[in-house]
Design goal:
Elements lengths: L7 H11 L3 E6 L1 E14 L6 E14 H10 L3 E8 L3 H12 L7 E3 L7 E7 L4 E7 L7 H14 L5 E5 L8 H14 L2 E5 L13 E2 L3 H8 L6 H15 L3 E5 L5 E5 L2 E5 L12 H14 L4 H15 L10 H6 L2
Parallel strand pairs: 1-4, 1-8, 2-6, 4-5, 8-9, 9-10, 10-11
Antiparallel strand pairs: 2-3, 6-7, 11-12, 12-13
Helix pairs in contact: 2-8, 4-5, 6-7, 8-9
Length: 328
């Protein structure tokens, strides 16, 4: 199926209504650090490039980048996550504060470290190496209960819930069950940016957004064509016990499967600089569009355009309403 094109007027109405919505974001917040420098020689000690340091840049990543994307589109939000008692957590809170996002639901666990990804990058935006600092064991005990308590307290004011799962410990089976129960009681949608080891946790979710590799892993099916995407989406929905699925397929666009509605969306990327965080943009724009009253096909088109914009930017990035509307 080819979805009817979203008109400029309808797109504008939906994007304007996004600013009236409130979303609850739960998941693995992280700090992305980019150590940038120039490369002019290879080390005499090993066959690796020598990077002459120029500067560091810091971005909010993971669930925190989902929050920045939602805020850039005008939404109000709460973000629930777990950080360590460290300098990375302080910097992450500063980045959220600069975007007018409260961090009072970021819970501190002094037995963990704040997830931090340090990328060594050239001045031409070529990644040389990455170092991950993390504690990825599932949260438990008082911290797990505190997350559940925050979900119960903040879900009541939300128009939609986003779960951003990066396998860094926040999305446990008990926490995901609490999300589904609270959202169901209030009749609001739950959208999940998934990781396949937690697939069984997502049963009852409204919409799950795997990339094509995740969908292949979950279904044991290859996805090279639209027909294969259709088959994989149907099997993924059955396997995950979710209502709908949107498979992101990189340069091949997306495949939406929602009830009787299904079809392909061609990629809208005009240039690809960096795909880091593109999934965060997709799930944020999808959730807001649906909360604003879009159909699934309309929401997928908005998310597809947003993804096409953000992959043209370096590192985790956001899309503004003006950028999104310019595509229509």
């Amino acid at each position: 199926m080819i979805f009817p094109s979203l008109s400029a007027g309808r797109a504008r109405a939906l994007v304007e209504d996004m600013a009236t919505c409130r979303v609850l974001i739960i998941g693995d917040v992280m700090l992305d650090q980019f150590t940038i420098g120039s490369v002019t020689r290879i080390s005499p000690e090993a066959p690796v490039p020598v990077v002459a340091f120029a500067r560091d840049e810091f971005r909010a990543g993971g669930a925190a980048n989902v929050a920045l994307n939602a805020r850039a589109l005008g939404a109000s939000l709460d973000v629930i996550g777990v950080v360590g008692a460290d300098a990375a957590a302080d910097r992450l809170r500063e980045l959220l504060s600069a975007a007018d996002i409260a961090s009072d639901a970021l819970l501190t666990d002094d037995t963990r470290r704040t997830t931090t990804k340090v990328r060594i990058v050239t001045t031409r935006n070529q990644q040389v190496a990455r170092i991950d600092y993390e504690t990825d064991a599932g949260v438990a005990g008082d911290i797990e209960q505190a997350v559940i308590d925050q979900i119960a307290a903040r879900c009541a004011s939300a128009d939609a819930v986003i779960v951003s799962d990066y396998l860094k410990g926040v999305v446990t089976q008990k926490i995901m069950a609490a999300v589904i129960a609270e959202a169901r009681a209030r009749g609001i949608r739950v959208l999940v940016d998934p990781k396949i080891p937690h697939l069984d946790y997502y049963a009852g979710s409204t919409l799950v957004t795997p990339n094509h590799l995740e969908a292949e892993t979950a279904t044991h099916l290859r996805i090279r064509t639209d027909d294969e995407a259709r088959a994989a989406a149907a099997k993924f929905r059955e396997r995950a016990k979710c209502e709908s699925v949107l498979i992101t397929r990189g340069e091949h666009g997306m495949w939406l499967s929602c009830g009787e509605t299904e079809g392909a969306l061609a990629s809208t990327a005009r240039e690809v600089s960096d795909v880091t965080g593109a999934g965060d943009t997709v799930v944020a724009s999808l959730a807001l569009a649906l909360a604003a009253g879009a159909s699934y096909a309309e929401a997928a088109q908005l998310a597809n355009e947003a993804a096409g914009i953000v992959v043209g930017k370096f590192g985790p990035a956001v899309v503004t309403p003006a950028e999104l509307l310019a595509r229509f």
